[in-house]
Each structure stands twice: as C-alpha cells, then as structure tokens.
Amino acid sequence: MNLVLLDTELEFDESVVAESPDEIRTQVREYERGDRRTFDLDVTYLDGLTGDVMAAMAAIPYGETRTYGDLAADLETSPVAVGQACGRNPAPIVVPCHRVVGSDGALTGYSAADGVTTKRRLLEFEARESGRAVQTRLPTERF
C-alpha cells in the first residue's frame, strides 16, 4: 500500500503489520498532525539482520537520531550492513529508518520516495514537534 505523508508518497508493506490498512493510515495521519509520536501497531520484524536493525530503529525515540555506526556497534555488524538493512525496511515511518544518519550527521540515503529530501523533511518535522534542533547535513556537504 502507499501512504501519503508530508506531501510525499511512501511505499509501505502492510503485510508486516497486524492491524488493518485503515488503522495504519489513521495512525500515520495522527503522526502527521503532531498528535502521535509512537505507533500502536503490531509489527512483525523480518528474520535476520534486517529484523534486528528494524528493532533497533523502532527503539530510537521520536525527534532523535542514531548513526549507522551506533546501530552497527550495538548489533556487532558493520555500518554498511546496517544501511543495507535500513533500505529493506518494509514499514517506513512506523519503523523509523529516517532517524538513522551518517556518523557526521549526514543524510546519506533514504529508500522512500524523494529520498534524502523526504528524510530531511521527516527529521525537521519531528525536531519542530519535539522542540529539538535538527543536526543533519546533506551528503554533498561532507566533501
């Protein structure tokens, strides 16, 4: 199914969520209005490293970020492997892969529509809603 969020369409695999597509859409709309910071949805994590990364991403609080290296250290794997697993996340927003950034805060990728632009918008939205400053950079700013 496709979800529309902040004027961007995201591909979402509803088969990994126990609740109905209508309930998923309702909770995403609540998130977009600023009425929801966590999702009350039963997500089935994939097997293997991707599932482990999904669980780690789900633990990142609203309005905060972690680096690929942070997750890699916790999971005893490489940052590249974490990035690849993030790209396989079937439930973006609900499993917040947008909260994972490069070691220097660079927005190094996002597999949803409009890529890094969407990731930046989501992080800025959460920072604004939570009253935190967003500390990210575009990948081109790194070089």
Automatic annotation (TrEMBL):
Any one GO biological process: DNA repair
Domain Methylated-DNA-[protein]-cysteine S-methyltransferase DNA binding: 52-127
Keywords (A to Z) from UniProt: DNA damage, DNA repair, Methyltransferase, Transferase
GO molecular-function terms, A-Z: methylated-DNA-[protein]-cysteine S-methyltransferase activity
Keyword 4Fe-4S: no
Catalytic activity: a 6-O-methyl-2'-deoxyguanosine in DNA + L-cysteinyl-[protein] = S-methyl-L-cysteinyl-[protein] + a 2'-deoxyguanosine in DNA; a 4-O-methyl-thymidine in DNA + L-cysteinyl-[protein] = a thymidine in DNA + S-methyl-L-cysteinyl-[protein]
Coiled coil: none
Domain of life (superkingdom): Archaea
InterPro entries hit by this protein: MethylDNA_cys_MeTrfase_AS (IPR001497), MethylDNA_cys_MeTrfase_DNA-bd (IPR014048), MethylDNA_cys_MeTrfase_DNAb (IPR036217), WH-like_DNA-bd_sf (IPR036388)
Name assigned to this protein: Methylated-DNA--protein-cysteine methyltransferase
